C-alpha cells in the first residue's frame, strides 16, 4: 500500500512538472503538432496521404478582422475572463435542459487548451485535463499568445489547421490580407469544419457569415496587448 501511494505521488509530481514545463516552453515556441492533427492524419492517410495544410504565422500577420470574428462567434468575453465564462456555461446548460439546439460554453482559452494538450474525446477525464491546462495557460500565457495559438491550431477544414491554411488554399492570399467577409466565413465553419466547406459555401453558411459580420460590428476593435 505504501509503495502504491508513493508511486501515485511520484506520477503526480512528474505530470505537474511535465505540464508546467510544456506550457512554459510553448509560451514562445510555435505549436506545430497537436493531438487532433495526429488523429486526423491517421484517419485520412489512406485517402489523402501526407496532405496536411498548416502554416504557423505570428499574431501580427493575422488580419484583425479574424480576431474580431472568432471573438464575436466563439467567446465574447475572451479579453476579460480568466479562462472560464461562467455566464456562458450556465446559459448553455439552461438551453440544453430546455431542449434547444445543443451548444457549448467553451471559451477560446478552453478550446486552445483542448486542441494543444488533450486528445479528442468526450470523457470527463478529458474535460478535467482541459480545465487544468486552461488554468495553466491563463496563468503563464498572455491573452495575445492564447489567441495567436488558437488561430494557428484550430481545425478549419479537411487536413487544414489554423487560419493561414484556408487563406492560402481557398482565398489565395495570406491571413494578413483576409477581408471581413472571408474572416466571417472562416469563423462560420469553426463549429463543424469537416461538414461546412469554405470551398463550396452553402446558403446557410452565407447567411450565418452575414450574421457574424453584424456581431463583429458589436464587438468593435479588439486590443489584446503585447
From TrEMBL:
Keywords of the record: Cell inner membrane, Cell membrane, Cell shape, Cell wall biogenesis/degradation, Glycosyltransferase, Membrane, Peptidoglycan synthesis, Transferase, Transmembrane, Transmembrane helix
InterPro entries noted in UniProt: Glyco_trans_51, Lysozyme-like_dom_sf, PBP_transglycosylase, Pep_trsgly
GO terms for MF: glycosyltransferase activity
Statement: the UniProt record of this protein carries the keyword Cell membrane: yes
Residues spanning the membrane: 7-29
Annotated metabolic or biological route of this protein: Cell wall biogenesis; peptidoglycan biosynthesis
Domain Glycosyl transferase family span(s) in chain numbering: 51-216
Membrane topology: Single-pass membrane protein
Annotated localization: Cell membrane
The keyword Isomerase appears for this protein: no
Catalytic activity as recorded in UniProt: [GlcNAc-(1->4)-Mur2Ac(oyl-L-Ala-gamma-D-Glu-L-Lys-D-Ala-D-Ala)](n)-di-trans,octa-cis-undecaprenyl diphosphate + beta-D-GlcNAc-(1->4)-Mur2Ac(oyl-L-Ala-gamma-D-Glu-L-Lys-D-Ala-D-Ala)-di-trans,octa-cis-undecaprenyl diphosphate = [GlcNAc-(1->4)-Mur2Ac(oyl-L-Ala-gamma-D-Glu-L-Lys-D-Ala-D-Ala)](n+1)-di-trans,octa-cis-undecaprenyl diphosphate + di-trans,octa-cis-undecaprenyl diphosphate + H(+)
Enzyme Commission number(s) from the entry: 2.4.99.28
Function per UniProt: Peptidoglycan polymerase that catalyzes glycan chain elongation from lipid-linked precursors.
Family label: Belongs to the glycosyltransferase 51 family.
Name of the protein described by the UniProt record: Biosynthetic peptidoglycan transglycosylase
Record organism: Alistipes hominis
